[in-house]
Design a protein that fits this description.
With 114 residues, this protein is an alpha+beta fold. The protein contains two helices and four strands; from the N terminus they run αββαββ. Strands 1-2-4-3 form a four-stranded antiparallel β-sheet. A hairpin with a 7-residue loop joins β3 and β4. The longest helix is centred in the first third of the chain and has 20 residues. The protein is globular and about 45 Å long. The N and C termini lie far apart (32 Å).
């Protein structure tokens, strides 16, 4: 449930970012990789991007740049990722450059076969 909520929120945010950018070629990407006992799920977009002064604030409770936002989604997602033993991070080179959000979670141990 926590995992699904995080992914839905990241995709919804990416959708809003590309819509607000009014690009002729909107793009949202999702990639999955396994690194050192962890799985990394990255959601990228070519939307409006994130201003550098907002980067340290985006996971704070109540912080939003949306007119209709509440500032709970990314904050809740970061807390949920931590609760599952992982992390949620973000990167953007600034306005107009899109953004990338990376969810890192530990891979559950698989039972060994005898």
């Amino acid at each position: 449930m926590l995992f699904r909520s995080i992914i839905i929120n990241l995709l919804r945010n990416a959708k809003h970012a590309v819509e607000d950018a009014h690009r002729p070629n909107p793009h949202i990407g999702v990639s999955l990789s396994r690194v050192n006992g962890h799985v990394e799920i990255k959601v990228t977009d070519n939307g409006v991007g994130i201003e550098q002064q907002n980067m340290p604030k985006i996971f704070r409770h109540g912080f939003t740049t949306k007119n209709t936002g509440h500032g709970f989604g990314l904050h809740s997602g970061a807390l949920a990722a931590k609760e599952m033993g992982g992390s949620l991070s973000a990167h953007s080179d600034g306005p107009g450059t899109g953004a990338a959000f990376t969810l890192v979670l530990p891979v559950a141990n698989q039972p060994t076969k005898s």
